[in-house]
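Hello,

Our lab assistant flagged a job as stuck in the queue for most of the afternoon. It eventually completed. Since we weren't sure the result was trustworthy after the delay, we are filing this so someone can double-check. Below is the sequence as submitted and the structure that was eventually returned. Let us know if re-running is recommended.
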Amino acid sequence: MAVKIRLQRHGSKKRPFYFIVVADARAPRDGKFIQKIGTYNPLSQPAAVQLDRQKALDWLQKGAQPTDTVRRILSFKGVLYLKHLLRGVSLGLFDEATAMNKFQEWHEGHEGSIKKKQEEAVRARRTRKPLAPKKTEQPEEQKEEGNG
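-- returned structure --
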């Protein structure tokens, strides 16, 4: 059975909200699934992703194939990087403690950048002013030509 990690759409028209699920590849998009491993809300700034990192990693190691969008989400959350580090451990390149230290360093830096983006979005939302109609003025040259 081919297993995919994909998005399952919920929410109303023009207000999407997704569950990240593990499902049989033959099942319909919003149909039967094996396990729910997270949620994705693309409407928030930045997009809100809740993900059970351990479940996602387990399914990837079992051979589940993520769709393109889910692959980007997993990469954003560090699941693919963690899988990469654990592969290095299994090959004997370094020990598990080193791998976890590398992941923690990456995770802390990544969380800091996410918080910065959230603060910038909040600041931009507060300073945003309603759009006023633009006044179009003719350049001086055109005014003189029209009067002459």
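-- support follow-up --
The delay was a queue issue, not a problem with the job. The result is valid. The chain has one domain: 3-125. The CA atoms of residues 3 and 64 lie 5 Å apart.
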